[in-house]
């Protein structure tokens, strides 16, 4: 494709609301355009990358007998009422009413539609198992759309659903999917980790998430180097062991801590370990306000609350609510004035003494706070606390944390939807039984962004070969020079027979062209410049920055 005829609106400056590296680069490289919060158009370069990712996804799905279909995005409320999710799905569901007053939703996921499809069409055990998948835009009215394509309100998902006559059959497909997902994320060149995403013990898990490792990731993974076990921190089964060094009980003392805003800063100031610092956090659980005492490195924002407590129903109380109830600012509550609410803590906090805590006063903290003496605590059963650096429960080494982006999830649904929506099949004895189901999602547009998070440098994107928008970027430095233009034209015509070629034939300054080329990130560049007259061009590799002069007759061999 000739760049003079392309639509690649690259930007010199990054818009300042772009909140992640991939978001910045997608905008800067002219790959996406925001239409509304969390809603984007995919411009030609990103569309090409999406096509490549989708082709890989299709291949891997078809390799495990997945059958592609396309279901409507517009879904009637009746089906959601049948499954019971119409009232429970909440504010993320984009709801609307048609001209006859009938309610609809824009699909955030398709369990209801697929279950209604399959129950009407597949009635015998002989037709099972079956796996159906689609690649389609999904709609979720996210509370906080952010990081560009990483958390959109309209985004592209591959969703697959499998239907089975037995648990064993579901297990087999789940394993196939797990392998297919590993293949997909390997092929798009993501560094990723599959993690356990429910509280089942090792091996007995019903769901895994595939996490692309990236600092920007909103999930935290707990893992050890000594085993394959890795879990979303929401669900990790890692038992804390108290440190006997810190059990001597000293008296509570208030100290001045100028400038201290985070647990880490307090730890640094006091020369203490991060896990000896306690933060208080007040959250609303159902209708109760609950104060959690949390040690170490936790950030008090609502996203983190969700991921650390893992229960969808936990919300931060608003500042006004907290002030109203506690007479205190959020996150700054010391062991005073807390008689109006119940206080909960995990076991690990209870058996630690001489902790440092906020004193409910700016720039003051208490040291030597003792749980039980200075704090009144109760246990909160559902809450398991894990600490970086502590021995894991299975003895496989110290627990490590990493941030991850959830790019996919595989899930054993069981009969949740088939029972509520009466999707039954006749077994060998002619008896009607609910189908056993699995569902499997990949964020296609999120995957594209995750790849950029992992593959870029200061100058722009560095595409892995498997999903690059073009294989070769031919640049004629000065197309006004006949020799250069003619050679570049010729190379373009030749190479486009076997490769996807982007050809910068624009009459822009060389600097502009090189900047754009770095930004767009095609792995291999052929620069036709002054040496064209001698039949020489420059070949440059985007990743290493290496470049070398090559004779035109040897170019084909060099590149192949
Ligand atoms: P998250 O925890 O990030 O909100 P989710 O668990 O709600 O994701 P699933 O219902 O498991 O998402 O959907 C399958 C996949 O779709 C996810 O693994 C993710 O890759 C992708 N996805 C989910 N929500 C979004 C979004 N708002 N924008 C882009 N991709 C998304
Ligand atoms: Mg979500
Ligand atoms: Mg999730
Ligand atoms: Mg998920």
From TrEMBL:
Function recorded in the entry: Catalyzes the attachment of proline to tRNA(Pro) in a two-step reaction: proline is first activated by ATP to form Pro-AMP and then transferred to the acceptor end of tRNA(Pro). As ProRS can inadvertently accommodate and process non-cognate amino acids such as alanine and cysteine, to avoid such errors it has two additional distinct editing activities against alanine. One activity is designated as 'pretransfer' editing and involves the tRNA(Pro)-independent hydrolysis of activated Ala-AMP.
Domain Aminoacyl-transfer RNA synthetases class-II family profile: 48-464
Quaternary structure and partners: Homodimer.
This protein's domain notes: Consists of three domains: the N-terminal catalytic domain, the editing domain and the C-terminal anticodon-binding domain.
GO molecular function, one term: ATP binding
InterPro entries: aa-tRNA-synt_IIb, aa-tRNA-synth_II, aa-tRNA-synth_II/BPL/LPL, Anticodon-bd, Anticodon-bd_dom_sf, Pro-tRNA-ligase_IIa, Pro-tRNA-synth_IIa_bac-type, Pro-tRNA-Synthase_IIa_type1
Principal EC category: ligase
Name recorded for this polypeptide: Proline--tRNA ligase
PANTHER family from the UniProt entry: MITOCHONDRIAL RIBOSOME PROTEIN L39/PROLYL-TRNA LIGASE FAMILY MEMBER (PTHR42753), PROLINE--TRNA LIGASE (PTHR42753:SF2)
Lineage: Bacteria, Bacillati, Bacillota, Bacilli, Bacillales
Organism of this sequence: Macrococcus lamae
EC nos: 6.1.1.15
GO cellular component terms attached to this protein's record: cytosol
């Amino acid at each position: 494709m000739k760049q003079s005829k392309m639509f690649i609106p690259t930007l010199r400056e990054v818009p300042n609301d772009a909140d992640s590296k991939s978001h910045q680069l997608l905008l800067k490289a002219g790959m996406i355009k925001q239409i509304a919060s969390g809603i984007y158009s995919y411009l030609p370069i990103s569309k090409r990358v999406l096509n490549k990712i989708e082709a890989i996804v299709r291949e891997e799905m078809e390799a495990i007998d997945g059958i592609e279909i396309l279901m409507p995005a517009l879904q009637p409320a009746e089906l959601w009422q049948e499954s019971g999710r119409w009232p429970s799905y909440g504010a993320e569901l984009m709801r609307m009413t048609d001209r006859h007053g009938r309610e609809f939703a824009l699909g955030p996921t398709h369990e209801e539609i697929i279950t209604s499809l399959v129950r009407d069409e597949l009635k015998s055990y002989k037709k099972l198992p079956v796996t159906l998948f689609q690649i389609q835009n999904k709609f979720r009215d996210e509370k906080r759309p952010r990081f560009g394509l990483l958390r959109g309100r309209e985004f592209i998902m591959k969703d697959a659903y499998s239907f089975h006559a037995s648990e064993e059959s579901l297990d087999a497909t789940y394993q196939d999917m797990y392998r297919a997902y590993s293949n997909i994320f390997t092929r798009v060149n993501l560094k990723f980790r599959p993690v356990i995403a429910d509280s089942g013990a090792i091996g007995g898990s019903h769901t895994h998430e595939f996490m692309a490792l990236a600092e920007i990731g909103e999930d935290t993974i707990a893992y050890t180097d000594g085993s394959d076990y890795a879990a979303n921190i929401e669900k990790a089964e890692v038992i804390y062991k108290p440190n006997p060094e810190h059990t001597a009980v000293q008296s509570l003392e208030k100290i001045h801590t100028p400038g201290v805003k985070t647990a880490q800063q307090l730890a640094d100031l006091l020369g203490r370990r991060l896990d000896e610092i306690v933060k208080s956090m007040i959250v609303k659980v159902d209708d109760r306000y609950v104060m959690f005492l949390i040690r170490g490195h936790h950030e008090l924002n609502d996203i983190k609350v969700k991921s650390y407590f893992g229960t969808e129903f936990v919300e931060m109380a608003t500042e006004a609510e907290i002030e109203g109830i506690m007479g205190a600012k959020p996150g700054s509550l010391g062991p005073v004035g807390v008689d109006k609410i119940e206080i909960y803590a995990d076991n690990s906090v209870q058996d630690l003494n001489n902790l440092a805590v906020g004193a409910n006063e700016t720039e003051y903290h208490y040291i030597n706070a003792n749980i039980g003496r200075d704090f009144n605590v109760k246990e909160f059963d559902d809450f398991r606390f894990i600490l970086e650096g502590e021995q894991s429960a299975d003895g496989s080494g110290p627990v490590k944390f990493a941030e991850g982006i959830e790019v996919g999830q595989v899930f054993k649904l069981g009969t949740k939807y088939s029972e509520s929506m009466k999707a039954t099949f006749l077994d060998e004895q002619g008896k009607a039984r609910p189908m056993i189901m699995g569902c499997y999602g990949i964020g296609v547009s999120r995957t594209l962004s995750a790849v950029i998070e992992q593959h870029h440098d200061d100058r722009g994107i560095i595409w892995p070969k498997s999903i690059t928008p073009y294989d070769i970027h031919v640049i004629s430095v000065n197309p006004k020079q006949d020799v250069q233009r003619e050679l570049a034209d010729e190379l373009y015509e030749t190479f486009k027979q076997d490769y996807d070629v982007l050809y910068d034939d624009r009459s822009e300054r060389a600097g502009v062209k090189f900047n754009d080329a770095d930004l767009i990130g095609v792995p291999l560049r052929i620069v036709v410049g002054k040496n064209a007259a001698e039949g020489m061009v420059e070949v440059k590799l985007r990743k290493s920055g290496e470049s070398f002069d090559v004779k035109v007759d040897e170019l084909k061999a060099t590149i192949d």
